Amino acid sequence: MSQARGYSAVAMIFHWTIAVLVILNWRLAENAEHASREQAMAIFADHKAIGITILVLTLGRLAWRLTHKWPPLPSNYAGWEKMLARTTHVIFYILLVGLPLGGWLANSFNGREVEYFGLFTIPALPVGENEGLADSIYDVHSLGGQIIIYLVALHILGALKHTFIDKDGGIARMLPFGRVGKAQ
Ligand code: HEM
Ligand code: HEM
């Protein structure tokens, strides 16, 4: 039985653009650890601008998701698989909004604006300055950044399982080609 390809082109473009940007932003933040102070400043300038881009794209993606038909998970998935997949997806959305918002908030508590690739300036949120609070938010932000990467690993394992072991969907569900649905 062949299943209709579930996700629309728009959903796929949102998914893959955000996925690439999240992994890039995580690598940038990690690389900054071993860089000189000037290099780290430059790296974090990019990290912040990319982070805000992820926030805007995620809000667009959620708006799209709420106003368009969205495919259900395949009916042959076990109950625990559906639950695990849904939980992972919900935590993804929470982090995709929470990480950049938290970063922006902490940056604002440090009295800083976000320079968007030299194109324009995103103002600090009107919260006043509080370096202690900024540090605490950054601690949670960094932890959230690690968590999202562990979740990406789990998410990829799920996609690989359904692609190569169960052969009932997997990565093809988020691609414009490949077989979706259970083989006969
Ligand atoms: C930072 C990286 C990633 C994030 C944040 C992410 C996030 C998500 C989210 C939130 C969904 C659920 C879509 C929805 O129902 O609204 C999803 C679906 C999906 N993702 Fe990812 N993803 C990432 C990377 C990847 C990678 C690397 C793969 C491939 C190995 C992948 C494969 C899939 C597939 C196949 C689905 C469809 C699940 C289904 O309905 O069967 N994703 N992803
Ligand atoms: C989805 C978007 C984002 C992701 C995935 C992300 C991820 C991360 C990760 C993983 C770290 C920790 C690196 C480490 O401890 O080794 C980090 C640190 C940091 N992020 Fe983000 N970030 C995002 C958005 C933002 C935004 C929008 C800003 C600011 C406007 C920001 C500012 C920072 C800063 C300044 C640090 C260093 C914190 C410190 O002093 O320890 N991030 N980010």
Structure report:
- The protein is elongated.
- The mean pLDDT is 94.
- It has four helices and two strands, in the order H-H-H-E-E-H.
- It has helices spanning 9-32, 37-67, 79-109, 131-165, and strands at 114-116, 120-122.
- The chain is mainly alpha-helical and 184 residues long.
- Strand 1 and strand 2 form a beta hairpin.
- Bound molecules: protoporphyrin IX containing FE (2 copies).
- One protoporphyrin IX containing FE binds next to helix 1, helix 3 and helix 4.
- One protoporphyrin IX containing FE (HEM) binds at residues 15, 18-19, 22-23, 65, 73, 89, 92-93, 152, 155-156, 159, 169-171, 173-174.
Helix coverage percent of residues? 55-70%
| Unreliable spans | none
Annotation field: number of helices: 4
Largest sheet: 2 strands, antiparallel
Structural class: mainly alpha
How would the blueprint of this fold be written?
Blueprint: H1 9-32, H2 37-67, H3 79-109, E1 114-116, E2 120-122, H4 131-165
Antiparallel strand pairs: 1-2
Helix pairs in contact: 1-2, 2-3, 3-4
What is the compact description of this entry?
By secondary structure, this protein is mainly α. The protein has one domain (9-174).
Output the keywords.
184 residues, mainly alpha, binds protoporphyrin IX containing FE
